[in-house]
Amino acid sequence: MEVADIVAQVPMTKLVVLVKDGNGKLFFKYGRHKPEYDYLRDLIEAAKDRSLEVHAWFVVLREGGEVPRGWLAENTRYAVVDERGKPVGWICPSHEEARKRVLNLFRSLLDEYEVDGIHLDYIRYPEPVMAKGCFCDQCGKEGYLNEEWVMRGVSHVDTLVEETYELVKEYGVELSAAVFPDYPECIIGVRQDWGKWVDQGLLDWVAPMNYTNIMSVFNVRSMIHVSMIPEGILLLEGIGKKSSVSSLSPEKMIRQAEAAVKAGADGVVVFSYGSLTEKDLKLLRIFRARCRFSS
Length: 295
Fold this sequence. Notes:
Layout: H1 3-9, E1 14-20, H2 39-48, E2 53-59, E3 62-65, H3 70-73, E4 79-81, E5 87-91, H4 96-112, E6 117-121, H5 147-170, E7 174-179, H6 185-190, H7 194-199, E8 205-208, H8 215-228, E9 234-240, E10 242-243, E11 246-247, H9 250-263, E12 267-271, H10 278-291
Helix pairs in contact: 4-5, 8-9, 9-10
């Protein structure tokens, strides 16, 4: 399908486009690297005709998962170290040089493409099932029972978000993030204190990944998220049409969207475009027209 056809079908006002995946692969022009097809540039051009925002979606710290890939495979000294002393495929944000590399990716994209924002995904440490935090020399060896060790990891992620905010605002575009829905437990599990980020005004909008097939769980999480968001920051509740923990019918997807807005969310973000059917898109258009919100 041509990018113009994709853009014509999108029933929302923000299009979040993957530019770096979980294996470290880049889908935009960066230094000597050029993608086989520069779809980001074409999407931006097509989106302009419809006043559709394009946000560059980065899988920030994951580069390989269980084993380092991409840039991290050649720079394993910057990797998260698991409890056995083995590097895994995640960048540890405790390393200043690693953060500089991440920021350089953002800057290079903003210099090359007229996007409306940078969207942060995997802006955290890995889930405990993969690594129980990072045990590198800079993070320390203490473990979960030590509050200082946990909060040290939180501060490393916070630093990267703060540095990204400063960079992004130089370009006058938005900063957003996809975040874990189980706040504040995610502070312990993956060192992600996104409640602090919204309190400090570091994000323009936030998308809690409220992916579940269980309506009661979705509803309670939505109410919690609404209660956390200060004035001036958009809450776009994340709906998992098809994810590792959810698979929704078109009707249930809309039920969740309606529940989020009823709870007080400013809108929704549906993951992901590739999972949407013609019926999904039709219902989302009707939902958007009925709700009269902008995102």
